[in-house]
Amino acid sequence: MQTQTSRPLQRCLAALITLLILPTLSFAQGSRSLEAPAPATQQEATAIEEAVAEASVPTTIDPRAELDEIINIYNTHGNGAVFMRRQDKGQLFYTVSRARVKVTADHPDWANFRTMAFEEAYLKAQAEYMKFLGVSVRAQALQSIKEDPSMPEFTREELGSTSKFEELLDKAAAAVGSKLDVMLNENGVDPTKFKMLPREKKKELLRNAIEKRTVTTASAELSGMIPVQTFEANNAEGRHEVAVTVVASPNFKSWVNSIIATKGDLHPNPRKAGGESVRTIVGNNPAALFHQFGIRHIYNEKGYPVLVSYGQAGNAYTGTDYDERAEGREMALRHADAQAYGNFAFLFKSYGMFNQEEGRKEIEKTVGKIQQQADGSTFSSKERTKEFISTLNQTINAKGHVSNLPGVRKLTTWVYNHPEYNQEIVGVVYVWSPQSNRLSKHLKGADIQKTKKIYKAKKKVSAKAVMGQEMMDVDDF
Question: Which stretch is the leader sequence (predicted)?
């Protein structure tokens, strides 16, 4: 993340530089003798003091601004630019969704809140896709006006009876005697003035309300929608924001459906052969895997399509007890497993529903008020108020299901200790390919003729980044 000089610091430096070069400019204009610079005027000194004071206040960087900048680069120069061009041509659906991590990095469950932020961003993207496929909208606008200009008045019964304040005071005085006066004095209230509080009566003279309600619903099949990139940004205070880009296209959805139709018996693509192995592409560097979320579609060295699913969870225990740390790590691994398996369900067979009820209301009213003073006189006044009320009730529901998917295997597990936050994150990577699908069926049918050769994984170390690894081919969409 680049460090930028704050505006107050720039002003301070400019003021100091100006004072330093003023004597030099004076000498260059013909002064033959070197004289001590004249003291700064009161105005200059005040300007410098203000600039120094502003520069001393730490500038808080908004992680959202940093996140948007990274996404803009991706959408301008990265694969995002290709996706956007193809979206403009009507070839695919592409969107970016964001979410904030709800806690700061010093929270023991920060890693799990971070994972849920990615889930939230992905859920928002699913909602956008649902609305894109078909949205139903009901809107209602309403204006109501009520006017009665007559001011409120006290009735004869109200004027003839004692005020509620006085009734309450009399009852309290009868029960506790002088203790009430003591309590009022202790709280800075004059008992005499308390008894003289005026009665008042209010009434709405004019009420003008404008209301707009909108109900938006959508439901759609989400199968074939896949995340293609993740982003993350943070500031010095430990505030994080994340983003997910997703793509859906007829071509990729057909490919996903073909896996189900052929029961995973897919052929390799000769044009994709000759690349790196899956282990090499995925790598085993926890610092890089920490930034991977969701599921990806890649090709192995033989040209077979491969699905790579990522899962991670935080170990909330930060103490020194070995057993507790190990137990927390095991539980985190199980949560990561569930997350990785869930990615397959959302890809192959998923359905979502979106419902949002939004309302905005503007209320303008004039209230008449009449008060009766202690001496029996009355005083009337009018008060005009304006208020705006905004309400929102939104529900996004997405469900995934896949049954009897053979060939899903665990590629690697990892443990990452965050260097700045002292947080332990546990992750897992699962993969599926037609080859592993075929092997699974052979094992199930006890029809193994030879043992497949196991290739050694090449260790890959990648630098820490705020953008996930670029793995997918845009041509697949």
Answer: 1-28
